[in-house]
Design brief:
Blueprint (H helix, E strand, L loop, with lengths): L1 E2 L2 E2 L47 E5 L4 H12 L7 E4 L23 H8 L11 E4 L4 E4 L2 H10 L17 H16 L1 H6 L4 H21 L13 H20 L11 H11 L10 H8 L26
Helix pairs in contact: 1-3, 1-7, 4-6, 4-7, 7-8, 7-9
């Protein structure tokens, strides 16, 4: 919605469509990395050294991509190293909005953060965003990058209790990430924002094929790659925990619920119980946020349910 640094239209969820009418997600535009010594990461430029208090994370609690990074920040013990701002759950005509002016940049809307980093930027103002207070710019707005740099980019400032991308499992992690992302993480969005029946049918089939595969994979396992929690579990969890509350109804991925998959349901609750993860999940924000998408829910009515034992209890 930004064209040459100017907000041009009311917020719309569909960024682009393919030849079949399928949802196409925007590519992230800032791809620098924080590293322990400030050297360049896998993409982008050098100059972003790990320092306590230097970086700020902008997130939305409804957003699964942002929630990846909130979980990474928590598990790596970086809550006191990296400050954080949370936008309101409801999407406005100007996109993400802060409940009170942003304490770092004084912004009211997330798109103002983007134009401060690049006054001529064109594109969407998405979350998460990792901001550098020293250089007054965006380091990175790609959740997969941010999660990985939270794991290893902050060196001794971070806890070593969890290694979310252990060297011995990297090939398996990358392969499973590449399988889960288009079919499940983005698959629910492809179904929800499809503009043709064929695009919806293909996306919906992908979603439930992936869920079936993960259900089978988890038989006898604590986590997707065995006994070790990895970034792949975080990437899967943030979709699973939103599924019954939002995607099943609003996005029309309603063949089954996660509650209908015994292994997936138990796995989701097992990940939720890891210290530092439950407080990153806000079902109220999730429901209010998704059901504020006017193109999918013009009346703005937020359903009372579902009742999800162990996660969300419906008030009487």
């Amino acid at each position: 919605m930004l064209v040459n640094g100017k907000w041009t239209a009311n917020w719309q969820p569909v960024q682009g469509v393919d030849a079949k009418g399928g949802f196409v997600r925007q590519t992230s535009s800032f791809r620098n990395w924080v590293t322990p010594d400030g050297s360049a990461g896998p993409t982008g430029e050098a100059g972003f050294k790990a320092e306590a208090g230097r970086y700020h994370l902008y997130v939305a609690l409804i957003c699964p991509w942002a929630s990846r990074t909130i979980i990474g920040r928590s598990l790596k013990g970086l809550n006191d190293v990296i400050s954080m701002s949370v936008v309101e759950p409801e999407l406005t005509d100007e996109g993400w909005r802060f409940l009170t002016p942003d304490p770092i940049n004084g912004a009211t809307y997330m798109h103002e953060i983007y134009t401060k980093a690049d006054p001529t930027i064109s594109g969407r103002a998405t979350v998460p965003v990792l901001w550098d207070k020293k250089q007054n710019t965006i380091v990175n707005n790609e959740s997969a990058d941010i999660l990985r740099m939270l794991n290893s980019g902050f060196g001794d400032l971070a806890s070593s209790e969890y290694d979310l991308y252990p060297e011995a499992l990297r090939a398996e992690i990358d392969a499973l990430n590449d399988y889960i992302y288009p079919r499940l993480n983005n698959g629910v969005y492809r179904a929800g924002f499809a503009t043709t029946q064929i695009a919806y049918d293909e996306a919906n089939a992908d979603v439930f094929a992936a869920l079936d595969d993960l259900e089978a994979r988890l038989e006898g396992k604590s986590f997707l790659l065995g006994d070790t929690l990895t970034e792949t579990d975080i990437r899967a969890f943030v979709t699973l925990v939103r599924f019954d509350a939002a995607y099943h109804g609003l996005f029309k991925t309603n063949l089954k619920r996660i509650a209908d998959y015994p292994n997936l349901q138990a796995y989701m609750l097992r990940v939720l119980a890891i210290p530092g993860i439950r407080e990153t999940v806000d079902i109220d924000h999730i429901k209010r946020g998704y059901y504020s998408i006017k193109t999918l829910n013009p009346g703005g009515i937020v359903p009372r349910g579902p009742h999800i034992p162990g996660l969300y209890e419906v008030a009487a």
